[in-house]
Amino acid sequence: MSATIKLEKTDRRDTLVEIEKKYQKYWADNKFFEVDAPTIEEDPEDDADKLREKYPKYFSTMAYPYMNGVLHAGHSFTLSKVEFATGFERMEGKRALFPLGFHCTGMPIKAAADKIKREVEQFGADFAGAPAEDEEEEEPTPVKEAAKSEDPTKFKAKKSKAVAKQGRGKYQFEIMLQLGLSKEEVAAFADPSHWLHFFPALVERDVNNFGGRVDWRRSFVTTPANAYYDAFVRWQINRLKDCGKIKFGERYTIYSEKDGQACLDHDRSSGEGVNPQEYFQPEAQKVFEENNFDLSKNKVFLVAATLRPETMYGQSCCFVSPKINYGVFKAAEGVYYITTERAFKNMSFQKLTPTRGDYTAALHINGSALVGSKISPPLSQLKNLRVLPMETILPNKGTGVVTCVPSDSPDDYITVKDLSNKAEFYKIEKEWVNTEIVPILKTEKFGDKSAEFLCKELKIQSPKDTVQLAKAKEQAYKEGFYSGVMVIGKYSGEKVEDAKPKVKADLIASGEAFVYNEPEGQVVSRSGDECCVSLEDQWYIDYGEESWKNQALECLEHMETFSKETRHGFEGVLDWLKNWALTRTYGLGTKCPWDDSQLIESLSDSTIYMSYYTIARFLHSDYYGSKPGKFSIKPEQMTDEVFDYIFTRREDIKSDIPKQQLEALRREFEYFYPLDARVSGKDLIPNHLTFFIYCHTALFPKKFWPRGVRANGHLMLNNAKMSKSTGNFLTLSQIVEKFGADASRIALADAGDTVEDANFDEANANAAILRLTTLKEWCEEIKATQDTLRTGSKDSFFDKAFDNEMNHLVEQAYEQYSATNYKAALKYGLFDFQTSRDYYRDSVSGAGMHKDLVFKYIENQALLLAPVAPHFAEFLYKDILGKDGSVQNAKFPRASEPVSQGLLDSLEYVKELARAVREAESTVLKSKKGKAEVDASKPANLTLLVSTSFPDWQEQYIDFVRQLFESNSLNDNKLIKEKVGKDMKRAMPFIQFLKQRLVKEDPKTVFNRELTFNEGELVKQVLSNIQKSTTTLKIENLKVVTFPHGEKKGTDITTGEEVEITATGKVVDAAVPGQPGILIKNVE
Predict the structure, then answer these.
(1) Which helix (H) or strand (E) holds 374?
(2) Domain ranges of the chain
(3) What number of helices (H) and strands (E) belong to the chain?
(4) Which CATH number fits the domain 19-105+215-242+589-736, given the four candidates 3.40.50.620, 3.40.50.300, 1.10.3730.10, 3.30.70.360?
């Protein structure tokens, strides 16, 4: 059972928290994070592009959090990405704006409030009447994750919010108690408005305690609770309708029968991201002779569901499951369908049945009773087909009746083969199984029987080989759809993707099939209702319309997505996303401007609210619009025409708002827009983030289209999914309370930067506490004893190398911060930076550290840490260095002079040489046949054999490997063996070594082996350090001899004398430039 760690001692954390509180107050008092555009009085320039050239800006946001609770660790992860970027961009001299609002629209708050109201009525205001846990007789049904889409070409989020948030609370009041509320507080939440007034203040508190650089003047709640934002949403919806993006008509939508309305993403307890899946229903007639049906008047059809109508030519049977109880449902006068109740329920809401919402079965039949029945499927080239059993059919997918196409479905192929081989086991007649395979389509990769090909290639032997079958299914579908050509039927010779809709249309026109939709996976509404798909008359936003889609693609083309996975995700969603329901009748939200009975749903009022941030401070000074902002503008004055003036430069408007105020509103918007970066979880790509792109292209001029979207992976906690039931769950407040702000921020930065799931490791946060407090103590000691530090020239090798390495790490950190790779930025800017200092300190322990370099280190460390750990950085900046102003307004450091690659290589060489000496020491001290080569109790001589050239034989293989690399033939072993011939013993290890280096290093470095420094001169500068590099032996004499490879004489670099090289074997032969031979022997 996972659980969060417990800190035994907190004194070090408390030291950091004290610093954090001090500087949070300092920042708030000085209003550092209240960021404005230059006023017209400051600069009358009307061209926003020119204005931004003079006053650079950066504007980033995260998805505003929903106000049915406080922020948890997942929110914190997204928050941290905006935080770090905002901090870095401030240090780049930009006016960096990070606002944060509070989302309240939709069903969740209203549904939860209604539950509280019912529970108060049922159990009393103190909930004393609620049953104890041990009184419960039934376990609550676990919420299932959305099933994987049948269409592998669609981008889908992998985790529903319900799965992420599940806890142990059965009742809503128990869920509220898990948020830290007392029983006395909970009853007030029966009023939905109480949620809107309770949680926003907690979010602001927690973000401030985290050190958030948020401009709270621009915050707001959604819904009519803020009349200004309400007016903004009405403008947005009106203008979308005006430009033809909002339409009215029948559309398939996820629907809650219990709630009587569409159930959209944010209205769901589970199944977020699940959309209607269109199935095609060929009708397979079966005439009954029992069950009291008058067959002279009634027809009964087995209704199979398929996503691939073009494959109907190859049907060889029809599958049902003996594990499923089917219903016989009236579909029309004299017509009955055999299907699952779930499927017929969906049909009953799609105008496919006599009575809407009536899915009462005339009778029920187990699947086993249908096995053996004769069927005549449409288009099938085979005759006298039967219904056969298939135990893997899912009752919650399709109709429970499955067409069998063994040519292109690996599942069908292997099941038919299994049935034929085990007919007696399955209690069927062997002649019922038709094993003939009718080719339908052909691909270059798999031929005209892809299922048979893939089952053989993947060694699939049984329907139980589910993993291989899933892989085969995906490959067969993609290859067949994108590369296949029909080889049968009316459209033979046409590409499958072209033929598919034509075959579908023909079958529908002939009355042999109909279109049916169902949810792709389980969807449960906030009211607990399992949803279906309904054909509804409703207002919808026409996403997917061709010209609008092209605009969205154009916007995406010029956007920074920070990863190819995010870009591909958007491209996939834009390819399949279609219209989206605009309104519903239950919940909280802005009323539809032209129909007061309808509310704008929660994903449609949150697509362009980033633009509202730019003007919010002028309109109101609280979340709710009850207190005026900078201007005394009333909500009713914010007409659609006024918003047009601000956002689209419309001039011909009538308004009683003073012109100077209108110009100020426009100036603020045009300065901060376009949005530079939008940060959200990757689960929002299929809806919110794609809507965000669509709506910006529809409502704003092209120059205001968004510039970037960063999608995060989900956040795990201690390498496990967050779960309240296991105790592996933390809110932002709990994280900061436990570790302090900066240690938490460091752990979040170290959690990961890709779209893959990241991990907040509490051990890393705890380690950060020790790292920061240890650094604090060292800096305080340096400050107190600075007069004892060395001054004067900085000409020693280690002085120059440390200075150069600091410059290098500063540039590396700058590069990673610029690319928003915070884990890597932390590596260079904290971990490696401290390692560099430690090595310098140890290397100059005799002469001591140079004062200038030590304080340069402290200052750079403060600045490199500022985006991630601003409180500690402020402490170093002000308390240790005594700087004026705030680190929040300091410039990000850059290298004080060009980085010397030669010095970097020299330093690495010295480190590697010391390691090599220790390894050689370990080797000679190991006992061989009871005796070591060197006696550890006696002093020793250390000889370094520094080769000034490479072996001649290596040069020919360097050239050979270069040729292989340039021709992409590195793995051509036949060619390598021909070249090497009898030189295999020494050549092959060398070639393999070069190949391994080419995987990790720049090819130029691998092939150009000339050193960037003078090895002999370098060793001469660090002799004393090398002599002290052993751990056990005392080195009495160190001798360094340089020699051309293969020669028997060399030069002693200390005396300049020519000396004989008496050593033989590997220690001499393996010595090459940059890798000296090392000899250790006792002093004789």
Answers:
(1) strand 374-375
(2) 19-105+215-242+589-736, 279-516, 762-902, 958-1001
(3) 36, 34
(4) 3.40.50.620
Blockwise average pLDDT, block size 10, the chain, 1084 residues: 77 97 98 98 96 98 95 94 98 98 94 93 92 55 39 45 46 89 94 97 98 98 97 98 94 83 64 52 46 68 88 93 93 90 93 93 90 89 92 90 94 94 93 94 94 94 92 91 92 91 89 87 82 88 96 98 94 91 91 94 95 98 97 97 97 95 98 97 93 98 97 90 81 96 97 90 96 98 97 95 98 97 97 98 94 98 98 98 97 97 96 96 88 92 94 86 87 85 86 86 86 94 95 95 93 94 89 94 92
Q: Is the dihedral of CA 544, 713, 696, 246 positive or negative?
A: positive
Least Cα distance to 222 among 253, 256, 192 occurs for 192
- Alpha-carbon distance of 21 to 17, in angstroms, equals 6
Per-residue model confidence (pLDDT) at position 155: 44
In the beta sheet, which residues pair with residue 376? none
The answer for 1080, left when phi > 0, alpha when psi is -120 to 50, beta otherwise, is beta
The pLDDT value given to residue 278: 52
Closest by CA to 1020, choosing from 998, 1053, 989, is 1053
* pLDDT value, residue 268: 59
Distance CA 890, CA 1043 (A): 52
Burial zone of 420 (CB within 10 Å; 0-12 exposed, 13-18 middle, 19+ buried)? middle
* Angle, CA of 125, 127 and 129, to the nearest 5°: 120
The superfamily in CATH containing domain 762-902 is Isoleucyl-tRNA Synthetase; Domain 1 (1.10.730.10)
Query: Using alpha carbons only, what angle is made at residue 782 by residues 776 and 783, rounded to the nearest 5 degrees?
Result: 90
Q: E strands within 566-646?
A: 580-581, 583-584, 591-592, 595-600
DSSP letter, residue 685: I
| All residues at 6 or more sequence positions from 1073 whose CB lies less than 8 Å from its CB, including other chains | 946, 947, 948, 949, 950, 1009, 1010, 1011, 1015
Contact 533, 518 (CB under 8 A): yes
37 torsion bin: left (phi>0), alpha (psi -120 to 50), beta (else): beta
Query: What is the predicted pLDDT for the residue at 308?
Result: 87
Pair of tokens at residue 1067? 């220690």
The reported pLDDT for the residue numbered 979 is 85
Q: Per DSSP, what are the bridge partners of residue 947? A: 1043
What is residue 510's three-state secondary structure? Answer: coil
Q: What whole-number distance in Å separates Cα of residue 661 and Cα of residue 996? A: 66
The whole-number pLDDT of residue 521 equals 82
